[in-house]
């Protein structure tokens, strides 16, 4: 199954579940913005604090299907900001919900997400995510509904040489930890934890 079909089926499942519960999307969240920063940060938590991972959820680069997810086109408010669960490999059973998003930040280079792993050491999926993160081998991938897409214009091909399609508007449904992200630039490297950048333009407040 390709990503478009996967995202469509995921959107249908989530939409049906929300409708069954009488959910209606409404409201907005506050937005500021952030300058580009280190793509992935992993750090040992203080005693009693959750293990946190900061990584790229999606990048403004060409993925394995020749597509580019345009950061500015993302709608994170309609669904994701109200759920915030982070999964493993786009599987949505209760054991694969291994973390909660602390925040999302949009930069010109893509979306950053900071997640706190659940405090359940008996969950093997949660433990494997931490082990991979500590060794610098964790990636992230997004599940989303495509709202608008089209091939790049002649001018856009200068920035996205080789891209077959630009996803210009999209609704974020979920973010997953994975060892094989669709966009290879979302594969993290082990880097030291640093202070958050002080120069911010847009921040998604969850």
Question: Which short descriptors sum up this protein?
Answer:
single chain; 16% helix; 206 residues; 9 strands
Number of strands: 9
**3D shape:** elongated
Largest sheet: 9 strands, mixed
How far apart lie the N and C ends? 32 Å
User: What fraction, in percent, of the residue positions are helical?
Assistant: 10-25%
Low-confidence stretches: 23-40, 191-206
Radius of gyration: 17 Å
Number of helical elements: 3
Q: Quote the average pLDDT.
A: 78
Structural class: alpha/beta
Order of helices and strands: HEEEEHEEEHEE
> Strand-residue fraction?
25-35%
- The domain tally reads 1
What does this structure look like?
Helix content is 16%, strand content 31%. By secondary structure, it is of the alpha/beta class. The chain has one domain. Strands 1, 2, 3, 4, 5, 6, 7, 8 and 9 form a nine-stranded mixed sheet that branches. A hairpin with a 2-residue loop joins β6 and β7. The protein is elongated. The chain starts with a helix and ends in a 28-residue tail after the last strand. Residues 23-40 and 191-206 have low confidence and may be disordered.
What's the short version?
This protein has helices at 3-20, 80-83, 124-134, and strands at residues 41-43, 52-59, 67-69, 74-75, 85-88, 99-107, 110-117, 139-150, 165-178. The protein has 206 residues and is α/β, with parallel strands linked by helices.
């Amino acid at each position: 199954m390709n990503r478009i079909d996967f995202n469509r089926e995921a959107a249908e499942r989530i939409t049906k579940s929300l409708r069954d519960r009488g959910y209606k999307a409404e409201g907005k969240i506050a937005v500021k913005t952030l300058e580009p920063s280190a793509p992935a940060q992993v750090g040992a938590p203080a005693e009693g604090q959750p293990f946190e991972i900061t990584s790229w959820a999606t990048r403004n680069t060409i993925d394995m299907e020749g597509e580019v997810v345009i950061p500015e086109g993302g709608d994170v408010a309609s669904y994701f900001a109200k759920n915030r669960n982070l999964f493993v490999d786009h599987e949505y059973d209760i054991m694969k919900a291994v973390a909660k998003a602390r925040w999302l930040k949009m930069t010109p280079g893509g979306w950053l997400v900071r997640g706190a792993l659940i405090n359940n050491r008996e969950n093997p999926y949660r433990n494997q995510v931490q082990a991979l993160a500590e060794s610098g081998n964790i990636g992230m991938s997004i599940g989303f509904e495509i709202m608008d897409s089209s091939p790049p214009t002649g001018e856009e091909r200068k920035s996205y040489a080789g891209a077959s399609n630009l996803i210009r508007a999209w609704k974020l449904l979920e973010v997953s930890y994975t060892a094989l992200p669709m966009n290879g630039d979302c594969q993290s490297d082990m880097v030291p934890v640093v202070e958050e950048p002080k120069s911010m333009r847009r921040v998604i407040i969850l």
